[in-house]
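hey can u check if this looks right to u? its 134 residues, i copy pasted from the old doc so theres a chance i mangled smth
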Amino acid sequence: MTKPIVLVAAAALIDVDGRVLICQRPQGKQLAGLWEFPGGKVEPGETPEECLIRELNEELGITVAQACLAPFVFASHSYESFHLMMPLYLLRRWEGQVTRKEHEALAWVKPDKLTDYPMPPADEPLVAWLRDLL
């Protein structure tokens, strides 16, 4: 049986101290309580960059310029009912104050401490890439 491919774009926001922003999934959602990189599902006709600009504004209240989104690495993970493709972008510059709008909690975490936070299976491999880069 062929699984549908779901395209989700995510961003690793990096602050001046080299910490990465992770967000806790809200109760009532799939994988609730786990920590993830902010982002969301790419809508039909939307590029991953357009998706991130929209999602980061909706979820965190920040404004992002497309030129500031640097493609970094991607995750490819098979869940029970779909296959997830998730490009991860690095983001060091944005406008506005990061505000929790949709998540249970937000945390700024040093890359070597990201493994202390339980993440969905698709996000876990990305942590090693960030740790090696930062």
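The radius of gyration is 14 Å.
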